[in-house]
UniProtKB/TrEMBL annotation:
Domain spans labelled NAD-dependent epimerase/dehydratase: 20-256
GO molecular function annotations of the record: oxidoreductase activity, acting on the CH-OH group of donors, NAD or NADP as acceptor
Transmembrane regions: none
Pfam families recorded: Epimerase
InterPro entries attached to this UniProt entry: Epimerase_deHydtase, NAD(P)-bd_dom_sf, NAD(P)_dehydrat-like
Keywords, in A-Z order: Oxidoreductase
Protein known as: NAD-dependent epimerase/dehydratase domain-containing protein
Matches recorded under CDD domains: FR_SDR_e (cd08958)
C-alpha cells in the first residue's frame, strides 16, 4: 500500500547456549571433559575447592575458557555450594571422587564420605536446581569382582561386583563406588532425574597439566623409569582406556543414552607384562621396572553397548605413544624417583 513503510525482517534468535556443570575438573578425566565441552561450544560451570588456587590456572588457559568457563567454589560435602554451581545448568557431569594412592586407613573419611555422601549431595542439588540430566563417572571396579558371573562370558553392564566380598577384602574404593552408583541409578528412577553412569577401566593418556600427577599415570611412570623402594608389581589383567576416550564417552552418553543407562568404557583386557613388552618395543631405551608377580586377577569385559552408541576408542599404542611423549616434554621422565601406587604393589 502506498505510503506504508516496509517492516524490516526480524533477525533469527541467537542459538541457545547450552550450560552444563562438571565436578572434579582439576582431575585427569575432568579436565579433558572440560576441554571437550568448551571445544563443542558449551558454557561450563566447573566446581573446585578454591578457584584461585594456582593448580587450577591451567583450566582458565583452555581454548574458549575466557568466555565460556566459570569456576565455582564448591565441595561435594556441601550440598548448598553444589546447588549454586548447578543453577542454570541443563546437565551435570559428576566426576569428583578420590582415587587413593596409599592403603586406606580411615575408610569413612577417605572414601565413603566423599564418594557416597558426595554423590547423594550431587543428586539432591540436581533436583534443587532443576537439572535435567546427570552423568556419573563410576568405575570398572563396580563390575569386575563378581565370582558368580560365568567364567566364559565377558562381563557387561548387568554385572555388579560383590560388595560383601569387597568389604572382606578391605577394597574400600570398590565399596564406595558400588554404593554411589547404585544410589545414583535408584535416585534417578524414583525422582524423575535422567541419571546414567559410565564405568571406565584404568585410565591412561596425556595430561593437561603437571601440577598434580594422577594415580594411573604414576603407574606408567613407575613402569618406565622405576622408583622408590624394592616394590614388586602385581601382574594384573587390567581393562584400560584413553582419558580422551572417556571424555568422549561421557558426552556421547549424555546425548544418546537413555535414563538409568549404565555403560562400560574400556578396551579389551591386557596384563601389565604385555603392556610393559609393548612399551619396550615402542621405546626400547628406558630403564623399565620389570619386577612382577602373577596374581589371580583376570578381567574380561565388553563395551559393545557404548560402541553401539557410536563410541570409537583409540588403540592402546596411540595412548601409550601420546602418554610417553607428554611425559618426555613435561620432564617427568628425568631421574627423580617415582612411587608405585598402593593398588599395584605386591605385598
Amino acid at each position: 500500500m502506498a505510503g506504508q513503510q516496509e517492516q524490516p525482517e526480524m533477525a533469527p534468535p541467537p542459538p541457545r547456549r547450552r550450560v552444563v556443570c562438571v565436578t572434579g575438573v582439576g582431575g585427569f578425566v575432568g579436565s579433558w571433559l572440560v576441554e571437550l565441552l568448551l571445544s563443542r561450544g558449551y558454557a561450563v560451570h566447573a566446581t573446585v575447592r578454591d578457584p584461585d588456587d594456582p593448580k587450577n590456572a591451567f583450566l582458565k588457559q583452555l581454548e574458549n575458557a575466557p568466555e565460556n568457563l566459570q569456576l565455582f567454589k564448591a565441595d561435594v560435602l556441601d550440598c548448598g555450594s553444589l546447588t549454586a554451581a548447578f543453577a542454570g545448568c541443563e546437565g551435570v557431569f559428576h566426576l569428583a571422587t578420590p582415587v587413593p594412592e596409599e592403603k586406606i586407613v580411615d575408610p569413612q573419611k577417605e572414601m565413603m564420605a566423599p564418594t557416597v555422601e558426595g554423590t547423594r549431595n550431587v543428586l539432591e542439588a540436581c533436583s534443587a536446581a532443576s537439572v535435567q540430566k546427570l552423568v556419573v563417572a563410576s568405575s570398572i571396579a563396580t563390575v569386575c569382582l563378581n565370582p558368580s558371573w560365568p567364567q566364559d562370558m565377558p562381563k557387561d553392564e548387568t554385572s555388579w561386583s560383590d560388595k560383601k566380598l569387597c568389604i572382606e577384602n578391605e577394597d574400600w574404593y570398590s565399596v564406595a563406588k558400588i554404593e554411589a552408583e547404585e544410589m545414583a541409578l535408584e535416585y534417578g528412577k524414583k525422582n524423575g532425574l535422567h541419571v546414567l553412569t559410565i564405568c571406565p577401566g584404568i585410565v591412561f593418556g596425556p595430561m593437561l597439566q603437571t601440577v598434580e600427577i594422577n594415580t594411573s599415570s604414576k603407574v606408567l611412570l613407575y613402569m618406565i623409569k622405576g622408583g622408590d623402594g624394592p616394590h614388586v608389581m602385581n601382574n594384573k589383567f587390567w581393562p584400560m582406556v584413553d582419558v580422551r576416550d572417556v571424555a568422549d564417552a561421557l558426552l556421547l552418553a549424555y546425548h544418546k543414552a537413555g535414563p538409568s543407562a549404565r555403560c562400560l568404557c574400556t578396551l579389551e583386557q591386557m596384563d601389565l607384562k604385555h603392556l610393559l613388552d609393548l612399551m619396550k618395543n615402542m621405546y626400547p631405551n628406558y630403564n623399565y621396572a620389570d619386577k612382577m608377580v602373577d596374581v589371580d586377577y583376570k578381567v574380561e569385559v565388553t563395551s559393545e553397548k557404548l560402541k553401539n552408541l557410536g563410541w570409537n576408542p583409540r588403540k592402546r599404542e596411540e595412548t601409550l605413544a601420546d602418554s610417553i611423549e607428554f611425559f618426555e616434554k613435561a620432564g617427568l621422565l628425568d631421574g627423580r624417583p617415582c612411587r608405585l601406587p598402593y593398588f599395584a604393589v605386591q605385598e
